[in-house]
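User: I'm putting together a teaching handout on how multi-component assemblies are represented. Below are the sequence lines for each component of a complex, exactly as they appear in our records. Could you produce the 3D structure of the whole assembly as structure tokens, so the students can see both representations side by side? Please keep the chain order the same as the input.
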Amino acid sequence: MLLVNGIYKVFNAGTVNEKTALQDVSVELKEGDFVTLIGGNGAGKSTLLNCVAGVYGVDRGSILIDNNDVTRLPEHKRAAVLGRVFQDPMMGTAANMGIEENLALAYRRGQRRGLKWGISRKERELFRQQLKRLELGLEDRMTVKVGLLSGGQRQALTLLMATLKKPKVLLLDEHTAALDPKTANRVLEITEQLVKENNLTTLMVTHNMRDAIRHGNRLIMMHEGRIILDINGQEKKKLTVEDLLERFGRVSGEEFANDRALLS
Amino acid sequence: MGAVSLGLLWAVMTIGVFITYRVLNIADLTVEGSIAMGAAIAAKCIISGINPYLATCLALLGGMAAGLATGLLHTQLKIPALLSGILTMIALWSVNLRIMGTSNISLLRMGTVYQPLENLGLNKTYAIIVLGLLFVFALITILYWFFGTEIGSAIRATGNNPHMVRAQGINTNTTIILGLIISNGLVAMSGALIAQSQSYSDVQMGTGAIIIGLASVIIGEVLFGSRNFYTRMVSLMLGAVTYRIIIALVLKMGMPANDLKLFTALTVAFALSLPVFKSYLNPLRSLFKEVE
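Assistant: Of course. Below is the structure of the complete assembly, with chains in the same order as your input.
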């Protein structure tokens, strides 16, 4: 479903601030794969996600979604087949617009937008049913401005927006990192639920080792712009945080020094 | 009454400024040029014998072209929005002189859009008020519809959060350009209506227009602010009229006309800095509460 083929990404090339963010990264996600992507700060996780989403162009290599080469497509064109949730709860929604207006915008992802009214009665009913399933009480507040919602509510709404129109690939960029642990767990539960129901091909970046192990059927670890671990199926099910730390040390020759990942 | 009639015509311009400043979240200085452009096109057309209504529509088209120019500079050539607006504004000065051929045109004893109402026996001021009200409410209704459509919603969301808009598959360059086109079209139309009401067009008439527009937006929001998009635009109209009434009052109280722009600039500066003053006041307030 998603094929990343030997991509390179260098920031500020030719200056003193030159930073190689991705070096020859290749990965293939099969339909229905739920991959958790983990690594320390500056490992290249978010850069990889942003390259897939088209926020950054790549310097070399190619990206294929469902066998279509999207390497040269701009961000808004790729969005037709991608669902995205960002780390910052503010990023995924339009704060001054109502919940239903945000959903209506998302419901038209990948379609031509014309002079039809922005939201129909039928859609409103559909949105109400979908919101109900989040169990956050949002179905009774459909015209409330999204800016008035809490971070967790906004992330849950963004998740719903990303999956309302079934995407070929769902990209989650540390979407629970800015939430308190309890809310983060609730948002992860909702993520599980939506991914399972729609059989979504998912790439989830996380800082949290336990979440990376608990969720998904495959775990990928990055370090200094490369993929250093790729653990699948049964092996992933048995994985513990200690295993992961030990294997990270063996592969990278370094300690996994990241408080956020260890303590959470 | 003169203040009310003038306010209604400037309300059209205020709504244009609102579309860029509030909806798109861009301070667009193109309006200084496009309001004069609207006046220039309408005046030149009318003295050339073109129907005043058609002339006003041509002014609309001219303003839209100005908005397109700013939009292309900003989105395609990646020039910051503020600077793009200034570039178009400066360029329009020459364009407007070219259109008019001189620096001002008199429309005395020429047909205007207000003529048919005057022929019914209304004096000019009332004719302007009636036509202005009809026009502004028609405009508000059309815009309310437009900003509720799929494209309109996308434009509103762009000013809110361009990241989100791109993630929903919308080209933000297109929505920004569309917003600028609509805004400047309205501003130019306002210029055409103003020129016909005061019976002359002057290349300098745009100077300071952005500040008048912003002042009207802010007055409207502070005094008549509301949530619904329709009533929000009505409050802009009231804001534009209130601004004109305030100006008429301070002039009557004896302020020299030459100080008007300074007065307006200070008012807008004060209104825009209100959040800062509020944050200074808040600690004071909580201090008082503790004392109590």
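A couple of points students might notice: The mean pLDDT of chain A is 90. Strands of chain A lie at 2-11, 19-29, 34-38, 60-65, 68-69, 82-85, 169-173, 201-206, 218-223, 226-232.
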